[in-house]
Design a protein that fits this description.
Length: about 450
Amino acid sequence: MKKLNIGLIGWGTVGTGMIQIMQKNSQLLEKRLGAHLVLKKVADLDLLRKRDISLLPEMLTKKADEVIDDPDIDILVELIGGIEPAKQYILKAIRKGKHVVTANKALLAMHGDEIFKEAESYGVDLGFEASVGGGIPVIRVIKEGLSSNSMISIYGILNGTTNYILTKMLNENKDFNEVLAEAQKLGYAEADPSLDIEGIDAAHKLAILVAISFGKKIDFSKIAIEGIKDITLLDCMFAKEFGYCIKLLGIAKTDGRGVIEVRVHPTLIPLSHSLASVDNVFNAIYLTGDATGPIMVYGKGAGMMPTGSAVVSDIIEIGRNIISGAKKRLLPLGIAKKWVEEAKLLPFDEIQTPYYIRFSAVDRPGVLSKISGILGNEDISIASVIQKGRAVEGMVPIVMLTHEAKEKNIKKAIEKINKLDITGGTKATIIRIENNLS
């Protein structure tokens, strides 16, 4: 039976999951692949850390170059994360003619264009299923299952940490800091959770989805990103009263004329929508193609075994190509590099959605008229209003839902309202609404 040698750089959580799957399911993998997978060499800076599995000492090294330079290794797996030295390791392996598998979402979001170009140029396969959605095979769904479709939109719950926090806030009436501390204790949030709660992790994943869905090169710095740290329990409760829940969504949609909206932010979505039922640490991506209509893929978006499963699935796919002698069967973006153009992004100030706006204002006559007057002057019409009873020191929450309005008009109005004496120096909270997720 043919043998395929695998080299691994980065023996951390996901690397451990990958090895466990290769060991536990070795016979099954051989049957599905028609070849024997051999983990030949593993590089990690810390080889003494206690892990759930042990490897033979002769397989281990602290030097990544020993893995990359080994002529017997067919597929290199990069799982160290970060930009450097991961980028140079991957490029060096590609230029040596090795196929590469990676879970590195940040690297692909920010430097994917260069890496995709090199992989196509050198005729090697690049697998990155594990970079988005953990064990959810969303990249394969888009590149293969939906390859006959012109993609219309993507709505994704792409970060389990923020989804867990928002779920617990709503269902257990807990505030943000309390739930964040709980998530850290349970291992759902990092000690420094900024990449998650600020929306950056979700934006990395969205950038990859946009590239493969629309066949466009995207400048990561132009993605509008807003996190959840300013979302309060009060917002979750008001949202529910209006028939919504709050999710951190990655959103990308085209206007049909080549312009794409790409944004990540907290979003009110109807409780009746499928994405509203995606709770806790689960992820889901809701895709709409011109032929299929809406499709949703759902599952565990992170973790040792789900992400390790995605890594091994890429190894299997690439292994099949090696055995059959197929080259460039499926290009990294599913489209030839010569056809990939820079994405034309709609400026964030030009997006149009309905809005949720929460003010704190003094409890006296004329407050609503002042606020609504400013909104009206900026071409913003009010759809619904809730004003609760008296609060501490005479300040009461006022919540409004608007009809569809432009982002720049909302910002102008809020800036003026925040300066009114009736707000007592507090700032309004705005959350965008998506009513028609298709």
